[in-house]
Amino acid sequence: MASGEGAIAARLEEMYARAEHEVCLFDTPPYLAPAGPQVDLQADLLSRGIVSRGICSATGLEDPKVLSHAFRMVELG
Predict the structure, then answer these.
(1) What is the CB neighbour count within 10 angstroms for residue 14?
(2) Where are the beta strands (DSSP E) in 28-75?
(3) Which candidate, 64, 36, 39, 33, places its Cα nearest to that of 54?
(4) Where are the beta strands (DSSP E) in the chain?
(5) Is 47 strand, coil or helix?
(6) Which tens digits make up the pLDDT trace of 29-45?
(7) Could you tell me how far CA 64 lies from the centroid of its own chain?
(8) In whole angstroms, how far apart are CA 59 and each of 4, 5, 31, 46, 62?
(9) Predicted pLDDT of residue 34
(10) Of 27, 47, 41, 34, whose CA–CA distance to 4 is shortest?
(11) Mean pLDDT by 10-residue block, N- to C-terminus, for the chain (77 residues)?
């Protein structure tokens, strides 16, 4: 079984691709996968009509990039 950042990113991508109705997640640092691709993957979910729900930690939202991503997801629905 693969491990590390690449394996985590691949597993998240697979999870998003297989989602049919809803994705629920907890978002808290430390982050183990790059943020950039996650924004695109989550935006794709929403464009496919899949509900994305997340609970973000306060410490995560202290990072301007994470806060910006959260606002972007709200804008996308």
Answers:
(1) 10
(2) 51-56
(3) 39
(4) 22-27, 51-56
(5) helix
(6) 887 766 667 788 888 88
(7) 16
(8) 23, 21, 12, 25, 5
(9) 64
(10) 34
(11) 77 90 89 73 89 90 87 84
